[in-house]
Amino acid sequence: MKKIWGSGVDDIFAVGYEGAILHYDGARWQAMTSNTTRPLRSVWGTAGNNVYAVGDIGALLHYDGRQWRQVDLDTYEGLRSVWGRGPDDIYVTGREGGIHHYDGSFWSALASPVASSLNASHGIGDALLVVGDGGVIAVKGALPTVEYMQHYLPLVVRG
User: Fold this and answer.
1) pLDDT category, 158, cuts 50, 70, 90?
2) Residue 84 CB partners (closer than 8 Å, separation 6+)
3) What is the bridge-based pairing of β-strands 127-132 and 136-140?
4) CATH no. for residue 31?
5) Contact 130, 141 (CB under 8 A)
6) How many of the other CB atoms lie within 10 Å of CB of 143?
């Protein structure tokens, strides 16, 4: 398995190779049907009935509490991370520098200053922090553009 996310101690999802998705209900782990064989790299949600998983060859899946369905992101890029602030503010990053945003209605591609793999994302306030290969850190504020700095260890972050 590659990543894990849960809405509580009795509602945990884990994703991994060959489209594997496991769910823990507080008593036991059960395999779920993902409808893909693509490796899944990340999972995140807002609740047990609103969960996203991403993976290779543009795999983006959404779980509505009943079943996993594929979402067309119109990319074949390997997707590496999914994170959001809520159901109408979700970010997906990719292996070729792709950054995609969901506003609750539509997915759109954001301009990215890099073509290297963006492997993880997280937000603080209105900023989106994205890290990837080569120590890339991308920061997105309230504007729909992306600024970046490229750092190599040691990294010093100043507030």
Assistant:
1) very low
2) 44, 46, 52, 90, 91, 102, 123
3) antiparallel
4) 2.130.10.10
5) no
6) 8
Tell me how far CA of residue 18 lies from CA of 2, 33, 34, 56, in angstroms: 11, 11, 9, 10
Band (111; pLDDT cuts 50, 70, 90): confident
**Domain membership flag for residue 143:** no
Q: How many residues does the chain have?
A: 159
* Side-by-side strand order, sheet with 118-124: 118-124, 127-132, 136-140, 147-150
Percent of the chain with pLDDT over 70: 84
Mean per-residue pLDDT for 36-50? 97
Alpha helix positions (H), the chain: none
Residue 9 is part of which domain span? 3-120
Amino acid letter for position 149 = M
Q: How many domains does the chain have?
A: 1
Position 113 in a domain: yes
Work out the average pLDDT over 139-151.
52
Q: What is the pLDDT of residue 140?
A: 64
Report how far Cα 107 is from the mean position of its chain's Cα atoms: 13
